[in-house]
Amino acid sequence: MTPPTPKPESAIDRDQRKALKRIREFLKVRTSYDVLPLSFRLIIFDTSLLVKKSLTTLVQNGIVSAPLWDSKTSSFAGLLTTSDYINLIQYYWQHPEQVNRIDQFKLNSLRDIEKSLGVSPLETASIHPLKPLYEACRRMLETRARRIPLVDVDDETGRAMVVSVVTQYRILKFVAVNVHETQLLRKPLRHLNLGTYGKLEWARMETSVFDVIHQLVNFNISSVPILNSDGVVTNVFEAVDVITLIKGGNYDDLNLNVGEALQKRPDDFPGIYFCSIDDRLDTIFDTIRKSRVHRFVVINEDGRLVGVLTLSDILEYILLEGEGDDVKAG
After folding, report:
1. 246-271: buried (b, 16+ CB within 10 Å) or exposed (e) per residue?
2. The pTM is what?
3. pLDDT tens, position by position, 117-132
4. Which of 97, 136, 221, 297 is the 20 to 30 A CA-CA neighbour of 143?
5. Alpha carbons 76 and 73: distance in angstroms, whole number
6. Is 237 strand, coil or helix?
7. Using alpha carbons only, how large is the chain's radius of gyration in Å?
8. In the sheet where 274-275 sits, what is the strand order?
9. Are residues 137 and 105 in contact, defined by beta-carbon separation less than 8 angstroms?
10. Are 139 and 317 in contact (CB under 8 A)?
């Protein structure tokens, strides 16, 4: 029996494959050093620092994560992120009798907190800054991290040396600016296995902040769309919003509802970005190139929630989609 003749590749599929291959080639010849700006400031926390002081420093400097350093062993000790603060809040919600200890808590005790909650421990993945950017991306996907510290080794002492932290956003923006073939990614989202759809977590403006924090922890997500009574998306509560609420060690604002909490956002909040399942990846990359965006809320023509497209989803797609085809073609 004669096997069926394979269907010829369409022009749009060919362009999509060509663009993905070009992006991967680009990531394999550039290093993490290439992504860094000409000048930048790096804040590193010692693991003996009080949680309260670390929180104040993050807010004052407008950052949401920082590498940790163990001065006793002179070694890199992981990456502090908003998830760690949220886990701490979850712990004290479960153990209210210990709430008076929260101001005396140090960063080196976060592992014990996360172990008792049964959640993911502190992010400890890192990569050498001269390794190909492609390897940094793969490491982030393997560890489900949204950012990765660059750790070098001092030639004289042989000790680890934290150089900077690279985020998914900075990598994808680097691609959007430098790889012109992203304009060939013209297939709409509805034809790509890209994003999360179906059963999605959501909340309302009247929902308590604590309830949303439980959603973030229990489902290991970084945001929860906010819907009105008609099911229309009006906002998104993000994990970083928690940092704003507890800055200065004041945990009373956690008793607010979502609507009240979102009013406390800083003036430089980048906003919420929407798209539809008919939007194409080339326009998504164009938005990333122009704006500081961390996720897209996918809505229909009525503004109702359809799905969520994260930068992790995009990074996974450009690295893994049809990867075997690249090997065969090579």
Report:
1. bbeeeeebbebbbeebbeeeeeeeee
2. 0.90
3. 777 777 888 999 999 9
4. 297
5. 9
6. strand
7. 21
8. 196-197, 305-310, 295-299, 274-275
9. no
10. no
